[in-house]
Specification:
The complex is a heterodimer of chains A (about 425) and B (about 300). By secondary structure, chain A is mainly α. Chain A has a single domain (about 1-425), classed as Formate dehydrogenase/DMSO reductase domain (Formate dehydrogenase/DMSO reductase fold). Helix content of chain A is about 70%, strand content about 0%. The longest helix of chain A has about 35 residues, at about 185-220. The relative contact order of chain A is 0.18. Chain B has about 300 residues and is of the alpha+beta class. Chain B has three domains: about 25-135, Cytochrome c-like domain (Cytochrome Bc1 Complex, Chain D, domain 2, Orthogonal Bundle); about 140-240, Immunoglobulins (Immunoglobulin-like, Sandwich), CATH 2.60.40; about 260-290. Chain B contains nine helices and nine strands. Chain B has helices at about 1-20, 30, 40-55, 55-60, 80-85, 90-95, 110-120, 135, 265-290, and strands at about 145-150, 155-165, 170, 175-180, 185-190, 195, 200-205, 220-225, 235-240. In chain B, strands 4, 5, 6, 8 and 9 form a five-stranded antiparallel β-sheet that branches. In chain B, strands 1, 2, 3 and 7 form a four-stranded antiparallel β-sheet that branches. In chain B, strand 2 (about 155-165) and strand 3 (about 170) form a beta hairpin. The radius of gyration of chain B is 31 Å and the shape is flat. The chains are: A mainly alpha (about 425), B alpha+beta (about 300).
Amino acid sequence: MDLIISDLSHHIRLNKGFFLWMGFLVLAFLACLFAYTRQLKYGLGVAGIRDYISWGLYISNFVFFVASSLIGMLISAVLGLIGMKWVQPITRIAETIAVAFAAVAGLVIVMDMGRPERLAYVFLYARFQSPILWDVTVITTYFVISLMLLMLPMIPDMAVLYKRYGSLPSWLKPVYKVLSLNWTDHPEQNRIIHRSIYILLILIIPAALSIHTVTSWLFALTVRPGWDSTIFGPYFVSGAFVAGSAAVIIAMFFFRKNYRLKDYLTDLHFNNMGKVLVLVAFVYLYFNINEYLVPGYKLKRADAIHLRELMSGHFAVMFWLVQVGGLLIPIVLMLFRKMRKPLPLTLISVVVLIAAWFKRYLIVVPTMAHPFLPIQHVPDNFKIYTPTLTEIAITLLSFILVLIIITLISKFFPVIPVVETAKEKGLDPLKSNES
Amino acid sequence: MKKLFYILLPVIITTLRVEAQNPSWVVPDDQKGKICLVRFTSDMAKQGEVIYLKNCQSCHGLPTKKNFASIQPSPGDLSENKVGTQKDGELFYRITTGKAPMPEFRNILTEDERWSVISFLRSFHKGYVQPDPEKMAASIGKRIKLSMTYDTVKRRILVKAVELTSDGPVPAKGAEIVVFVKRYFGNMQLTDPKPTSENGYAGFEWPQDLPGDKSGNVIVGARVNDPTGNMQEAIVSDTLAIGVPTNKPALTDTRAMWSTRDKAPVWMILIYTLAVIVVWYFIIYILLSVVDMRKIKQV
C-alpha cells in the first residue's frame, strides 16, 4: 500500500524542475499579459479583427477550448458508466483538462471584448432568446460540474495522503485537511460520495453535450454559408472528442514520463486511448464528409464561393493540411497497433491537436470573409484577416493559463486516484497492511 | 506601334467608360432653367444633408470623400466639378426623374426636400452662385391652389385646382394632377396623372381594398405635376378615413424570438429557467450533502 501511495504521490513536492517550468510559464504569462494591457488601453484595433471579419483568433480559440474541455465527460461519464475499468487511472487527467480548458474558455470570451468592464451587461441585459446567454449558462454549469467531478473523488485520496504519506509537504497539509472533509471511510460517507459522483456523472453528459451544441449554435443559428447547417451540433461534439482525446493522450505521456507512472499508465491505456481516438476521428470524418459534400453537391451560390475559398482558394493549404494531415492520415496510422504505442501515439496526437485548432479557425474565419452583401469601400485590411502579434500573444496567454492550471492541479494532487487504485488491488488504504 | 496600342488600351477603355456614364441623360431645355424660389441657407443645407444621408449616400458616398459605390454606371462623387457646373434645374430634373439604376425621387421627396438636397450639394461646389430668386420670380409659372374632397357616393377623390391670378381665383384648366397615398417610404401614386377639366376638377377612382390604419385612416395627397414648368408646385394632403381598417401589430409588439427580453416567448423562458433550476438543484444538493459529510465520525 505504501508503495502505491508513494508511487502516485512522490511528485507532490516543490522541486527544481517545477520552479523552472513554473518560472518559464509565469514569465511567458507576464509577457503576454503586457499584450493584453495594450489591447485594454488601445482597444480591439490592436488585433487584426475588423468590421467584416470580427471573429478571428479569439473566437476560434474559444471554440477550441470548449471542444477540448468536453473530453472530461467522454472519459469519466460515458466510458466510466458503461463499465470500462481501464479508464479509471485516466479519469482525473481528463477532468483536469476539462476544468482547465472550461475555466479559460470563459476568459477567452472576455479577451474578445472591447470593453470587458461591461461584462456584467451580458447578464443584466441578457435575452432568453439569445444563444449567447445559453452559452454563458452552460459553460458556467459545465465548469462547476467538472470541478466537482475532479474534487469529489479526490476527497478519500487527500485523507489517505494526509494520514499516511509522510513526505507530504507541510504547507500542503492544512489544505489537504480542509479539503478531505474529515473523511474516515465511514460507510455513510462512502454512500454519500458514491451517490454524488453518480449523479454528477449523469448530469455532466447533457451539460457537456449542451456546451458544445450551444457553441455550435452561435454559428448555426445564422444563415451564413458554412455555418447554416443542421448537423453543426453533432459535428462540433464529435470534433471536440477528437481534440480532447488527443489532449488527454499528450497529458498521459507527460505525466507518465515526468511523474514516473509507467506502472500505472501502461501501454494498454495508450492502446485503448488510441482506439478511442480512432473511433471519434472516424465519427468526425463522417460528419466532415456530410458537412462539405451536401452543400458541395447542391452548390448554392454563396456556398459555392465559400467552398471554393476553402478547397482551392485562400484557405486551401490550411484546409487540406487539416483534413488530410490532421484527420485522414492519423486515422489510417492509428489503425495499426504499433502506432498506438505511447510515443508514436503521442506524436500523432500532437498533430491531431494542432490540426484541431486550425480546424476551428477554418470554421470561423472563411465564413466571415464572405458576407452576402459585397464588401465595398473599405481598406484592404478589412477584407483579408491577418492576426497581429498582439493578438497572437493574447491567444498564447490563454494557452499558458491552461498549462498553469494543469500544472498546479497535477503537481499538488495525485494525478492517478490513489484510493481507487488501492481498492482495485484489494487493499484498504487507511489501514497499514503491506502489499 | 503595337506596344503603344497596348499601353494606351487601358487609357482608352477608362475614357470610354467614363464617357459611357451618362451618354444620353439629356435634361430638356425647358427644365434647365428651373430654379429654387428661396435662397439656399445653411439651415436648408443641413436639412438637405439629413435627406442626403438617408437617400443618396448609399450610392454616391459622402461628398468630397470619393467613396461612392463601385457600380456601373458609376454614381460618382457629387461634389465634383462635373456636377458643380450643372444648373440647378438640371440637378433638380435628374433627382426628380432618375435614370436606372438611379431611382426617381418624384414620389419619394417633395420639391422642397429635393431643393434642400441641392442646397446641401451646392455647399461643396466652389464658385457656385445661386440665381436670384426674387429677380427670377417674374418668370415662374402660375400659382395654383389645390383642394381635395372625397365623394362618398361615387367613391372617388375629387381634386379642385384654382389659379390665383391678380384678378382673384379662377378654375385652372389642364393642370396635371397626381394623387398619392403616403406609405412607410415615400408616396404611392394612385393612378396615372389626370388633367383638370374645364372647371378645374379632376376625379380619381378610390380603390376599395386599400388598407388604412386601425380606424381606416390613410393620408391622401394631391399635387400638380407639371413638367413644363408653367405651374408652380402645389400640394394638398389630408387624413381621410376611407381605407380598410387594418390592425396589424408591429412585428416587435408581440412575444417573439427577435423581440427584447421582456417579450421573449413564454415557452423559451420556461424551458431555460426549468433547465437551470433542475441542474443547479442537483449541484447545490450534492454540495450540501458533501459538506455534511464532515460531521460523520468513524464509529
